[in-house]
Structure formats: structure tokens, C-alpha cells
Amino acid sequence: MKNKFIKIKEELADQIRNGKMEVGALLPSENELAERYSASRETIRKALNMLSEEGFIHKVQGKGSIVLDVSKFDFPISGLVSFKELAKKMGHRAKTIVEEFEQIRPTTEMKKTMRLEKDDAMWKIYRVREIDGEKIILDKDYLVEKFAPDLTKEICQNSIYEYLEGELGLTISFAKKEITMEMPTEEDCRYLDLDGFQYIVVVKNFVYLDDASMFQYTESRHRPDKFRFVDFARRK
């Protein structure tokens, strides 16, 4: 049997998802919610804390809880941000599934693009990102093996960047990005919940270390209805 605060959290979350609560609006006060649900303020506070942790609301001291837009997720264009870092804002709403993990020999095209040496091997990693129970991103990662020779499936399940920077001491410096709209492939249809979408957004990343070594190529394939690709621009 679920705790009462979980039931309240789920009901409020459903109302936010379904647009019954307007983005930017304030939730009713703790006292009003306590009366509505015949619950204590402590129970309401627990429900609101869970909503905040999962990215449904933003709590402002002295003002209340503001409803956030959960229909789309902001995905920064210019930054180098891992999915784990983005997922922290979503709490338990986000999940990573490692579908493929193996060592491969690079293709001729990949050798040329990444300026690989003759004997360089690569890690091939396919990860599906699930949010609110829907599989909406397929990340196809190719990493030069010599930069992370002891990479494991468990590390890929958690965060590759956290491992490279925190444990190996590498400095991830910059990336070149390309964004296109493409028709879904058989892989996309197999791994993602496309729900009849005819196009997907593909973000290609060519990622470099601080010595200008290209160590990673990634294709991040997104269902188009769930993301806003955002940036900040200044006229010089």
C-alpha cells in the first residue's frame, strides 16, 4: 500500500503533466492542500519535496511552489553536459539503459574523422534514455579505447564523463556539434518509443580533450516532441 504523500505527489504530478495546472502558476498553499487531501502539513511537505526533486515544481522561499514546464526538457546546444547532469533535475523520472557495449575496430571513415592511429580500437556504446517511462533518446557513443581502457558497462550505466574526469583525470575541453532532422532508422524504431513520429532530431558531437585529441563521437537521437534545444546569444 502506498504512503499517502506518494499518492498526493502522483496526483499533483499527473495534473501538471496533463496541463491542469498552468506553467508558472503557484500551487495552492500547504494549508490549502492539507485541507483538500485531508492530510497533515508534514504529509503535504513530503509530497511537495518529491515534486521538487523530480522537476515538477520550483519552491521559492516566502512565495510558494511554482509549476514548471515538464512537457519539454531544455537541452543546451553550446554546453558540454552529460545526461546524468541533466537528469539530476528530473530525479527518479530519468533512467539510462545500456543496450550495447563492445570493443570494435573503427571503420576507415571513423579513422579519418577522428585521426586515429593504425592500431587504435574503440568502444561502441548504445544507451537509451528513458524519461517518465518513455524511451525518447538513443545515444550512440564511440570512444577511443586508449583513453578509457578499463571502461565497463556499469560505468556507462552511470556516467562516462564522471569517470573520465573524476577517476582518470582527463579534461574534456570542447566539441563541434551538428544538428539535423532525419527520418527514423530501424535502430531508432527498435530502441525508442516513437509513437508514429516521422522525424527525429539528431545531434552529432565530435568531442575533444584539452590537448585537442578527439576522443569521442556521439550521435544523440531525440524524439522531437520532448526537447527544446536552447542557447544564449549576444550580439558583438
Task: Draw up the topology in text.
Layout: H1 4-17, H2 30-36, H3 41-53, E1 57-60, E2 64-67, E3 73-76, H4 83-87, E4 94-104, H5 108-114, E5 122-131, E6 134-144, H6 153-158, H7 160-166, E7 172-182, H8 186-191, E8 200-209, E9 214-222, E10 227-230
Parallel strand pairs: 3-10
Antiparallel strand pairs: 1-2, 4-5, 5-6, 6-9, 7-8, 8-9
What does the model show?
Residues 2-70 form the HTH gntR-type domain. The protein has helices at residues 4-17, 30-36, 41-53, 83-87, 108-114, 153-158, 160-166, 186-191, and strands spanning 57-60, 64-67, 73-76, 94-104, 122-131, 134-144, 172-182, 200-209, 214-222, 227-230. The chain is elongated. The strands form three sheets. It has a six-stranded antiparallel sheet. A two-stranded antiparallel sheet has the order 1-2. A two-stranded parallel ribbon has the order 3-10. It is an alpha+beta fold and 236 residues long. The mean pLDDT is 86. The protein is built from eight helices and ten strands.
